[in-house]
């Protein structure tokens, strides 16, 4: 019922097709999304790229595109949602934001209508071939951040474990970030 999620599913499938590989079970496929929303949920479901595996990144550009890098065969591609499709889906999203603001008493009927129109848009999108939904271009160069070491310290204020790379020092004390910020 969510058109943006449906687009993410389609985009993920297309990315795997273009890269000529199956869903990632390890960490060789990297996806870089350009905004955090349902589009990235859809493609992470299909591609197996997740924040937990450190192979999903977000460059917060407020754009509806993602780049995919297959480290196993050095292939990559950037896929963006076409403008006419996007405008339609964003209009649906805006309507949803309005429905959320309604008082609970008159929200139910409006929400039902909204879900229905979402399902209709998804059905329309699913009838269109990938070429009508997406544009394809060369993926920009992307260097994934190095995985932080699991070496750790104990914060000398709250006593919790914190990765060494994240430790801050104030007045000779080793501190986690929140303790560092609140330390006086
Ligand atoms: Zn602390």
Name a few traits of the molecule.
184 residues; alpha+beta; 60s Ribosomal Protein L30, Chain: A; Wheat Germ Agglutinin (Isolectin 2), domain 1; five-stranded mixed beta sheet; two-stranded antiparallel ribbon; 6 helices; 20% strand; binds zinc ion
Describe the structure.
- With 184 residues, this protein is an alpha+beta fold.
- The protein folds into two domains: 3-137, 60s Ribosomal Protein L30, Chain: A, CATH 3.30.1330; 152-182, 2-Layer Sandwich (Wheat Germ Agglutinin (Isolectin 2), domain 1), CATH 3.30.60.
- Helices cover 42% and strands 20% of the residues.
- Strands 2-1-3-4-5 form a five-stranded mixed β-sheet. Strands 6-7 form a two-stranded antiparallel sheet.
- Helix 1 runs parallel beside helix 2 and helix 3 packs antiparallel against helix 4 (107-127).
- The longest helix is centred in the middle third of the chain and has 21 residues, at 107-127.
- The radius of gyration is 21 Å and the shape is flat.
- The structure holds zinc ion.
- Zinc ion binds at residues 155, 157-158, 160, 175-176, 179.
- The site of zinc ion has 7 residues, from loops.
Task: Write the topology of this structure.
Blueprint (H helix, E strand, L loop, with lengths): L2 H17 L9 E5 L4 H10 L8 E3 L6 E6 L4 E7 L1 H19 L5 H21 L2 H4 E4 L14 E3 L6 E3 L4 E3 L2 E3 L1 H6 L2
Parallel strand pairs: 1-2
Antiparallel strand pairs: 1-3, 3-4, 4-5, 6-7, 8-9
Helix pairs in contact: 1-2, 3-4
The protein binds zinc ion (ZN).
Zinc ion binds next to loops.
Count of DSSP strands: 9
**How many DSSP H or I helices?**
6
Strand content: 15-25%
Bound molecules: zinc ion
Q: What general outline do the C-alpha atoms trace?
A: flat
CATH topology of the largest domain: 60s Ribosomal Protein L30, Chain: A
Distance between the termini: 50 Å
CATH class assignment of the largest domain: Alpha Beta
Q: What is the alpha-carbon Rg in Å?
A: 21 Å
């Amino acid at each position: 019922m969510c058109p943006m999620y449906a687009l993410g599913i389609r985009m993920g499938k297309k990315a795997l097709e273009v890269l000529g590989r199956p869903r990632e079970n390890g960490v060789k496929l990297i996806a870089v999304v350009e905004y955090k929303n349902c589009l990235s949920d859809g493609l992470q479901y299909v591609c197996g790229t997740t924040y937990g595996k450190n192979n999903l990144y977000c460059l917060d550009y407020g754009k509806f595109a993602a780049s995919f890098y297959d480290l196993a065969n050095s292939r990559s591609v950037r896929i963006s949602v076409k403008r006419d499709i996007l405008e339609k889906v964003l209009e649906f999203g805006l309507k949803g934001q309005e429905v959320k603001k309604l008082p609970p008493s008159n929200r139910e009927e409006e929400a039902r209508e909204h879900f229905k129109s979402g399902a209709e848009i998804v059905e329309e999108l699913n009838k269109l071939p990938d070429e009508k939904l997406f544009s394809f271009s060369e993926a920009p160069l992307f260097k994934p951040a190095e995985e932080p070491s699991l070496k750790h310290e104990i914060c000398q204020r709250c006593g919790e474990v914190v990765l060494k790379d994240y430790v801050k020092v104030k007045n000779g004390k080793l501190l986690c970030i929140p303790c560092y910020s609140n330390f006086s």
